[in-house]
Design brief:
This protein has about 230 residues and is an alpha/beta fold. It folds into three domains: about 1-120, NAD(P)-binding Rossmann-like Domain (Rossmann fold, 3-Layer(aba) Sandwich), CATH 3.40.50.720; about 120-150, Double Stranded RNA Binding Domain (2-Layer Sandwich); about 155-225, no CATH class. Helix content is about 40%, strand content about 15%. It is built from eight helices and nine strands.
Length: about 230
């Protein structure tokens, strides 16, 4: 219903090798397509003319292109579709046809016709934080994501590398999940972020050794090794 408040279910989708279609090929579509490609989706763009960026992706075989207007047949065997055409009636048809086929759909800047909305994203390496205002103010979501640049510096990316490597080593010991959780939380609650921020590698190694009993080193590229 128009104006109804929607409580969205936050989720990260694994789109690797899933068929995704983007209807429309302008600058807005270009940004949506780039994110889908980055996530490993098999992307098909449907439109008569591609933007320069989409033309480049086509030349590099990153996307498929159907030189045509909208046709519901292009939704066959598709996992996800994004409608980004400049015609309201076409976007409405895409939304209606997708829902009838069980294809999840996003219509750009039109939450009422969407199964899902796209949040603003802040990324720091493998750290990804999604910000959403429930479709009420994408501009505010974007500002909040930009503000995170000042809250989460490069030390978080380094810490995430450490925690990823540490997780593999710790789980290999076969300890009870509750014990693993105590170890991981102890590392996170320690002074490790401060040490990383200050470039104190010996301090980082000491914290890891004291809490986990594991010896950690650093590769030439600055990544951790156990």
């Amino acid at each position: 219903m128009v104006g109804e408040t929607v409580k969205y279910y936050p989720v990260y989708l694994d789109l690797r090798n899933k068929s995704c279609v983007v209807m429309g090929a302008g600058e807005v579509s270009e940004r949506k397509v780039a994110r889908l490609v980055q996530c490993g989706a098999r992307v098909t763009v449907v439109d008569r003319q591609l933007s320069p960026g989409l033309e480049r992706m086509k030349r590099e075989s990153l996307i498929d292109h159907i030189d045509d207007g909208y046709n519901a047949d292009y939704l066959r065997d598709v996992f996800l579709v994004i409608a980004a055409t400049d015609r309201d009636d076409v976007n409405e048809a895409i939304s209606r046809d997708a829902k009838a086929r069980g294809v999840i759909v996003n219509v750009v800047d039109d939450p009422e016709r969407c199964d899902f909305i796209l949040p603003s994203i802040f990324e720091r390496g493998d750290l990804s934080i999604a910000v959403s205002t429930g479709g009420k103010s994408p501009a505010l979501a974007k500002k909040i994501a930009m503000d995170m640049e000042f809250l989460f510096g490069g030390e978080y990316e380094t810490l995430l590398h450490i925690m990823g490597a540490l997780r593999g080593k710790t789980l290999a010991k076969g300890l009870a999940p509750s014990k693993n959780r105590v170890i991981f939380e102890a590392v996170i609650q320690s002074d490790i972020l401060r040490c990383i921020r200050e470039g104190d590698r010996e301090g980082v190694k000491r914290i890891i050794r004291d809490i986990t009993g594991l010896d950690m080193g650093w590769r030439d590229d600055g990544s951790p090794v156990f």
